[in-house]
Amino acid sequence: MTINKIFFLAAALILTFTYSASGHEKKWPGKRLEQSWPSVQNFTSKQISLTPTQISQLNSVGIKIGSEDRSPTFYFAQAKDTSSDRPKTIGIILFIDEYGANGKMEISVAMGADAKIKKVDIWEHTENPSVAKDDFLKQFIGKTSKDSFIESKNYQPIADAMKASEAVARATEKALKITNIVFEKK
Question: Which of 65, 93, 121, 130 is the most exposed, having the fewest neighbouring CB atoms within 10 Å of its CB?
Fold first, then answer.
C-alpha cells in the first residue's frame, strides 16, 4: 500500500469519526422526543442551515452561534387535525448543546405553535443533579423569545450549580430565538 493510499484512508477514517461523533442529531432521538412531548403520536424533522444573515441577526441579540448550532434539526410535533384527518404541526423540539461548569449539556426545548416553551429536558450532563429536575426546569415553561433570561429576575438559578443554571437559560433562549428567526413570518 502506498503512502498516498494510507494517508487517504487515515483521513477518511478521521473525517468519518468526526462526522459521526459530532452533534446529537445524527440518530433519530425517538425516545427523547416521546418523553419531551408524550401526547404527540408523530414527529417529523428538518435540518436547516442558518444563513449568514440569520447568524448575524442572532449575534446582534446576544445569541452566540457555534459550529454545532449552524445546522439545527427541528423536530415537528404533529397531531391529527380533527377537521381534515391530516397531520397538523402543533410545536417544535430543538436540541441545544451548552456548557456548564463540568462540560457539555444536551438540552431539548419543546415549543408550542404559540411560540411558548412547553417543556425543557436535560439529557446528558455531568452537573449537579438538581439542574435536571422539574423544580428547576418548569420555571422556563411559558417563556417566549421576547422574555429576558437574566438570572434572579426571570428565573431562579440553583445555588450549587450557577454555571449549569445559566447554561439551561442560554439553551432555552437560543432555541426560542433560532426558531423565531428561522420561521419568522415574512
Answer: 130
Query: Closest by alpha carbon to 155, among 107, 69, 23, 164?
Result: 164
Sign of CA dihedral 143, 144, 148, 151: positive
For residue 2, give the C-alpha cell.
Answer: 502506498
pTM, two decimals, is 0.82
Q: Rounded to an integer, what distance in angstroms lies between the CA atom of residue 82 and that of residue 3?
A: 64
Written as tens digits, the pLDDT of the chain (186 aa) is 433 333 333 333 333 333 333 344 568 999 999 999 988 989 999 999 999 999 999 999 999 999 989 999 999 999 988 888 888 999 999 999 999 999 999 999 999 999 999 999 999 988 888 999 999 999 999 999 998 888 777 899 999 999 999 999 999 999 999 999 999 854
Burial class of residue 56, CB neighbours in 10 A (0-12, 13-18, 19+): exposed
